[in-house]
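Hello,

Our lab assistant flagged a job as stuck in the queue for most of the afternoon. It eventually completed. Since we weren't sure the result was trustworthy after the delay, we are filing this so someone can double-check. Below is the sequence as submitted and the structure that was eventually returned. Let us know if re-running is recommended.
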Amino acid sequence: MSDTYKEKTLEKKNEQDRFFQVDIKNRFIARLEDAMNGEANVAFAQKCGISEATIRKYRKGETTPNLENLEAIAKVANKPIWWFLSEDTESKEIEVKPPSIPVTFIDKFEIVASAGYGSYIDSESVIDEFPFTDAYLRRHRLSSADLCIIESRGDSMEPTIESGADLLINRKEFSPYKVVHGVHVLNLDGELKVKRLEFDLMRDGYRIISDNSLYEEDFLPRSELERLRIIGEVAMVLGKPSDYTV
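-- returned structure --
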C-alpha cells in the first residue's frame, strides 16, 4: 500500500471522526435503529443505495457515514438530517423572515383610455393596487403621489401598447406654454385617448400619432389647445408589456 493512499485514507477517516463525535455517533446508531424499525440490513441498504456491509458497520459503531450516505439514509427514512444527530426528535420549525423592502401601492382606477377611436370616462373608483418598490420609484424619479394605473383598450398604439394592458401614468399639469412629447393619456374633446404627442414647430401645433400605421395621425394647432387636456405621461406598460418602449 503506497504512502499516498495511506495518507488519503487517514485524512478521510479523520474528517469523518471530526464530523461524528462519540455522543453524536451513539445518537446516530439509536436513530438508525428507529429508522430501520426492524428491517433487515440488506433490504434497508438496497433502498439507500448503500452496501449491506456498510449498514452493518454503522449499526455496530465501527464506522460513521459521510454526508452523502447520511442524506441517502435520511431520505429513505423520511427524516431530516438533523433528526439523526440531534437530541431533540421533535420537528423544528425555523421562521424565515423575508427581507424588508419598502413598497408603495399605486391605485388602479376604473378608467379605460382608448387606444382606438376614443372612449369616455365612466367612473373613477379604485379597483386594484399594484406594488412598486420605493427604490424603483426613486430610480425613475417618480413620486407615488403623482402616479395612477388605468387600462388601455384598442389597437391603435400597437405594438407599443397592446389592448388590455395596464398603464402606469405619471400625472402632470399641462401648460400650453410648455412643449411635451412622448406617449400620453389625454382628453381630447371629452374622449380619453392614449397617443404619442410630437410638437411640430413649422405647423405650430401637436401631431397626435398612433404607433399602429393603419391609423392616420391627427393635428391640433396651438390655437385649439383648449380642446386638449393631458392626463399624464405613460411611465410604464404593465400587464401585457411588449418588447417596445414608449
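-- support follow-up --
The delay was a queue issue, not a problem with the job. The result is valid. The chain has seven helices and nine strands. The chain has two domains: 11-84, 103-238.
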